[in-house]
Amino acid sequence: MKTFKKQTKEEMVVDTVTCNGCCKAITIYDDRLEFEYTFGYNSEKFGDMIECRFDLCEECIYSLVETFKIPAKLVDRDECYVFSSRVTDDQS
Predict the structure, then answer these.
(1) Beta carbons of 23 and 46 less than 8 angstroms apart
(2) What does the alpha-carbon distance between residue 39 and residue 23 come to, in Å, rounded to a whole number?
(3) Calpha distance 84→78 (Å, rounded)
(4) What phi and psi, each to the nearest 5 degrees, are found at residue 31?
(5) Which of 1-10, 26-35, 62-71, 74-83 has the highest mean pLDDT?
(6) What is the pLDDT of residues 10-35, one digit of tens each?
(7) pTM of the model
(8) Is residue 87 helix, strand or coil?
(9) What phi, psi does 18 have (nearest 5°)?
(10) How many CB atoms are located within 10 Å of the residue 46 CB?
(11) CA 65 to CA 71: how far, in whole Å?
């Protein structure tokens, strides 16, 4: 028969999130991009098996998307309507 006891352990929880682009504090309720990617073995820019992590606020995501030579696809989840165009101020 097994008996159990309560055991407390320290748990790491997110305290703050800061945008890597503009250094603005981001709350867990704000729209943000949490990026995590491990580059493979032939990455010329980052090196082999290097993990890259960063967070971006909505404004920095917008600025990044505006630099794309091929426009990002935007999906209106309310209307389930798919379109491809540049982000414009009237779509925010």
Answers:
(1) no
(2) 25
(3) 16
(4) -70, 130
(5) 62-71
(6) 887 777 889 999 999 988 777 888 89
(7) 0.64
(8) coil
(9) -120, 135
(10) 13
(11) 7
